[in-house]
Model the fold of this input.
Amino acid sequence: MWGANRPSYQPIPTFQQCISNVQDPQLRARLVAVTHDVGAAAQAFEAAASRGQLHMVPKTTDVGAVSASEMKDVYTSRMVPEPSRGRPIYDHIFELSGGRCPMCMHRDVRSLDHFLPKARYTILSVTPLNLIPCCSDCNKNKKSDAPAAAEEMTMHPYFDAFDHEPWLSAEVMQTQPAHFRFYVDAPGSWDATTTKRAEMHFDTFKLSDLYASEAANELLGIRWSLELVHGRTGEPGVTEYLVELALSRYLHRLNCWQTAMYRAMSKSPWFCSGGFR
Done:
């Protein structure tokens, strides 16, 4: 899910490019004066993110003589609009996702989102590592509160590459029709904080509901195939078929809802003996 490519733009050149066509000489002078403050804050952000301690990044409103609204406007007026001096940087970060939201790894990217919200961390408004490609739903679901502890942070797709071990699991619920419950199943190598953060991410972006909805639709799409396999080879054949599908998806992406779904189905004797109907 995570470990996305990081933006190649550096924070100070990014800020300088965004403010390069400010016409008001007084505003321009005030913005130029805080350039190194912006760079230092970005450096501190990167160091904290690398340690999983973004909750320790100090909140900011005004930055020197630059007001909070003026700092936020560097993003909203000088990076987002097309054309604007900062728009090439916006597009670069947007394209890093390959079009898929790194927060849910399912829906299409629609915009950039501030990992630490610009309303509370104004100095990070155009810091590239604080800007995440995001789908509309994940953007809406993300909390705008400042995290008070490490456990309150969602995963950061540039820093938290937790796809080396399987952690996403699903359970087949014995209903008619069958449905699925998705949850975080932390590997033994994770500490308590990492587990809490994964659960926070899962809850914040409502991934259980999203994946369960997609799994219900996926089941409808393969039900006919399951009937054919069951008719030919019974429960053992269905189990083998689902194991193969789970492996195929596992090799594509270790922690995706399809991998968890097919693995759960293959491990359910109730499902394989006809619970898919």
The radius of gyration is 23 Å.
